[in-house]
Design a protein that fits this description.
The complex is a heterodimer. Chain A is of the alpha+beta class. Chain A has two domains: 16-140, SCP2 sterol-binding domain (Nonspecific Lipid-transfer Protein, Chain A), CATH 3.30.1050; 142-172, no CATH class. Chain A is built from eight helices and five strands, in the order H-H-H-E-E-E-E-H-H-E-H-H-H. Chain A has helices spanning 16-22, 28-44, 47-52, 98-105, 111-116, 126-139, 143-150, 155-170, and strands spanning 59-64, 70-74, 79-83, 92-96, 121-124. A five-stranded mixed beta sheet of chain A has the order 3-2-1-4-5. The longest helix of chain A is centred in the N-terminal third of the chain and has 17 residues, at 28-44. Chain A is globular and about 35 Å long. Chain B is of the alpha/beta class. Chain B contains nine helices and 15 strands. In chain B, the strands form three sheets. Chain B has an eight-stranded parallel beta barrel with strand order 1-2-3-4-5-6-7-14, surrounded by six helices. Chain B has a three-stranded antiparallel beta sheet with strand order 8-9-10. In chain B, helix 1 runs parallel beside helix 2, helix 1 (10-18) packs parallel to helix 9 and helix 6 (146-154) runs parallel beside helix 8 (258-264). The longest helix of chain B has 20 residues, at 278-297. Chain B is globular and about 60 Å long. Classes of the chains: A alpha+beta, B alpha/beta. The A-B interface holds A 1, 4-9, 51-53, 55, 103-104, 107-113, 115-118, 121-123, 126-135, 137-140 and B 8-12, 14-15, 18, 37-40, 196-197, 199-203, 208, 220, 222-228, 249, 275-280, 282-283, 304-305, 308-313.
């Protein structure tokens, strides 16, 4: 409940030139950071696995449509891969902009509303997708806080940097505008 | 008028109350409620904590046990009733007369609401629920005009609750078998209309195709607003042409009718959407809280559009003004 909804307006996408610029970057460092991030989130939010139920073993493909890479996410055991293209054989695929993904994870947009406005694409096992969406929505994840805890003494600068970047991407919460 | 808001998770329950709900309705994570979807709903412990959270803030919790029990498994529904009462639920929302009878006999002091799933649409049937099971409130089905609601209220002593926002059922509520026909699973008995296990989306160059239980029910062009994958909102080719033969994908929005509903004597306004996320709950509840407050104090409403949250990105007054097909 730390953030108000941003769902009453479409969120922006990353400019194509920026997407092009980050295309050559190596994926391994990002994978190591995000993998640690996922493990920490699941450790600190055990209710996530409870709500995922049997779908905790599903392999989710997450494709930010405005980034030149994608994520393969598994909850149990926690595992995150950063890949250039999503492979075949995943249980479910979710595609939307990075801004929408961040807002979804923080509960700032409604997944059904994104689907109605065609900003969210989903394929594969719909039960797994619904369980994931509901588990994340209930967890009330504080992404800046989680990130700060990952960086120890550099946590506060990391938190501020993330919040700045996120708010530039998604805009501030409605109550602040 | 009270504002009754949905919650599919404990976080949504807290969001609804913080946004101004007078009461929140929710259900257990099993087939005893009509929103039995993966990752949704409450464990017994979550319900107890949710009720404590609500009561601390002066709000109430209504527990929906509003599917129809299978003849061989009534114990599951009766246990849900017992556990909700034991947890301190302020009211139970029930559709099945056998279960209403159980509530009335086993928990005579428990407040009982007749679910929309009971399709109680006339004074006679409402009087039956009041006299037989001591029902205190009836949630009216979404097939009545405001004038018809006013006429019913004049002829009953029972409180009435009506939907003001969210998904619409065009069928007789609690009786629809479209999803059951396509999937073998019942919205009315297992709480799953268009169960996710039977829904498939396929992305192609022509757009997104949605299927339910193997039936193709719609194809949306790339930028075309979409709706839920339900048969009642399917787009079909028939001898009369192509189109939505039951209902367009739209959501109910009765914001402009609040004064009329108040004049009709409605006791409570209900927002649909236990399957929706916190962002929906927070925005829609806040919207109607403001609308009700301005109705009370006579000030000018400054209310944002709820269009982004609507199915098909469109809204309707539904049966409240019977202009639809």
């Amino acid at each position: 409940m730390s953030h108000s909804s941003v769902a009453s307006r479409p969120l922006p996408t990353i400019p194509p030139l920026l997407t092009l610029a980050i295309r050559p970057l190596p994926l391994l460092p990002l994978q190591l950071v995000l993998g640690g991030f996922l493990q920490r989130i699941l450790r600190r939010n055990p209710g996530l696995l409870d709500r995922l139920g049997e779908h905790r073993y599903a392999r989710f493909g997450i494709k930010p449509v405005d980034l030149p890479f994608a994520f393969i996410v598994e909850a149990a055991p926690p595992r995150l891969l950063v890949v250039r293209e999503l492979p075949q054989g995943l249980d479910a695929r979710v595609s939307t902009s990075l801004a929408n993904l961040l807002a979804l994870v923080e509960g700032r947009v409604d997944g059904d509303a994104l689907m109605f406005s065609r900003q969210l694409g989903i394929e594969g096992n719909m039960e797994a997708v619904l369980a994931l969406r509901n588990a994340i929505d209930d967890a009330g994840l504080d992404l800046p806080g989680e990130l700060a805890s990952l960086f120890g003494p550099l946590g506060e600068p990391a938190r501020r940097s993330f919040e700045l970047a996120r708010d530039r991407l998604t805009g501030p919460p409605e109550e602040e505008r | 008028m009270e504002l009754i808001c949905p919650a599919g998770t404990p976080a949504a329950l807290r969001s609804a109350i913080e946004a101004g709900a007078d009461a929140v309705y929710c259900g257990f994570n099993d087939e005893t409620n009509a929103r039995n979807f993966p990752g949704l709903n409450f464990s017994r412990d979550e319900l107890r904590k949710g009720i404590a959270f609500a009561h601390d803030r002066g709000a109430r919790i209504l527990v929906a046990i509003n599917t129809f029990p299978r003849a061989s498994a009534t114990a599951l529904w009766q246990r849900a009733v017992d556990d909700a009462v034991e947890a301190g639920a302020d009211a139970l929302i029930v559709a099945d007369i056998g279960l209403m009878d159980y509530v009335a006999r086993r928990h005579p002091n428990q407040r009982l609401h007749v679910s929309v799933q009971a399709a109680a649409a006339n004074p006679d049937v409402i009087a039956f629920y009041v006299e037989t099971f001591r029902a205190r409130r009836v949630v009216l089905p979404r097939v009545l005009s405001v004038v018809e609601i006013a006429e019913i209220i004049r002829e009953t002593t029972c409180e009435t609750e009506v939907f003001v926002f969210g998904g619409l059922c065009v069928m007789a509520e609690g009786r629809c078998s479209l999803s059951s026909y396509a999937t073998g699973k019942s919205p009315n008995m297992q709480g799953v209309c268009s169960p996710a296990s039977h829904v498939a989306y396929e992305e192609t160059a022509q757009g997104t195709t949605s299927r339910l239980g193997g039936f193709t029910i719609n194809r949306f062009a790339p930028q075309e607003a979409a709706g839920y994958p339900t048969l009642c909102k399917g787009r079909f080719s028939t001898a009369l042409g192509d189109g939505y033969i039951f209902e367009d994908p739209v959501s109910l929005d009765a914001t402009t009718l609040l004064r009329g509903l108040q004049s009709a004597g409605v006791a409570a306004l209900k927002i649909e959407g236990r399957q929706r996320g916190r962002a929906y709950i927070e925005s829609v509840v806040r919207h109607f809280r403001r609308a009700l407050d301005t109705l009370e104090d006579g000030s000018e409403a400054d209310i944002v559009s709820l269009k982004p949250f609507t199915e098909g990105q469109a809204s309707t007054l539904g049966a409240y003004r019977k202009t639809w097909r």
